[in-house]
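Morning!

This is the sequence you dropped in the shared folder:
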Amino acid sequence: MGCKVVGPTLGFVAFAVTAVVEWPVGFVVYLFKHRKGRRIMGHPSNVVFPKVNNAIRF
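The structure's back. Tokens below.
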């Protein structure tokens, strides 16, 4: 069993790219619909990072 480096690294890159787009959008939505805005802002950490991290096994 080796050290997992590639999966978490690519997961973080995907998280950062997604966050740059979704956090400003989520903030604007949050002004009108709090729950929906929080869901949008949480998407990168709750969905994107885990999916990319688990998809790459090395």
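Headline: The chain has a mean pLDDT of 90.

More detail when I'm at my desk.
O.
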